[in-house]
Amino acid sequence: MPFHRDILLALGVCSVSKKSCSNILNAGPGSAITIVVGGAAESLSARPGTANLTLRRRLGFIKLAIQHGADLVPVFSFGENDVIGKPIHVEKCEKPDIEEVVRVQQLYIEELTRFVTRLALLDFQVIYSRCSIRRIWNAYKDEFAKARLQELNIID
């Protein structure tokens, strides 16, 4: 369907391949990409009443961000309510080693947890000494995941 393809391209939709993402990020400051990190694997494991984040083995987007010095902005969604975290500044390194990629992934997960924690603090006006994404899940699951069949899992 060439017509649909043209519409998607005009809207800025493109492949999430390494080459495509690199081409966009090579355009410099102001160029941004949005990636659904869990991708097809996460969507295929989605079931009503579940929240499984496919994230543990997802290092490619972090490596790409490091290679281009592109900041990362963690996003978590409760249904249709998007929650966006603070950008994580990433230093450019064309050939990052695995330790650097894992270090930045940890920062990504920590910021995601921190932002959802701040959301909970504002919503409940409660001060938590330390809060994990699981605690936030527990705070919101009855409101946003009423029909859940299982608890939150961070997988693959």
Q: How large a portion of the residues is in β-strands, by DSSP E?
A: 5-15%
Range of helix content: 40-55%
Major sheet characteristics: 2 strands, parallel
Mean pLDDT value = 79
Secondary-structure-derived class:
mainly alpha
Order of helices and strands: HHHEHEEHHE
Q: How many helix segments?
A: 6
* Overall shape: globular
- The tally of beta strands, per DSSP, is 4
Q: N-to-C terminal Cα separation, in Å?
A: 34 Å
Brief digest:
By secondary structure, this protein is mainly α.
What does this structure look like?
This protein has 156 residues and is mainly alpha-helical. The chain contains six helices and four strands, in the order αααβαββααβ. A hairpin with a 2-residue loop joins strand 2 and strand 3. Helix 2 runs parallel beside helix 4. The protein is globular. The chain starts with a helix and ends with a strand. About 4% of the residues have low confidence.
What order do the helices and strands come in, and which of them pair?
Blueprint: H1 2-10, H2 18-25, H3 39-45, E1 52-54, H4 60-68, E2 75-78, E3 81-84, H5 98-124, H6 133-144, E4 153-155
Parallel strand pairs: 1-4
Antiparallel strand pairs: 2-3
Helix pairs in contact: 2-4, 4-5, 5-6
Defining traits:
156 residues; mainly alpha; two-stranded parallel sheet; two-stranded antiparallel ribbon; 6 helices; 4 strands
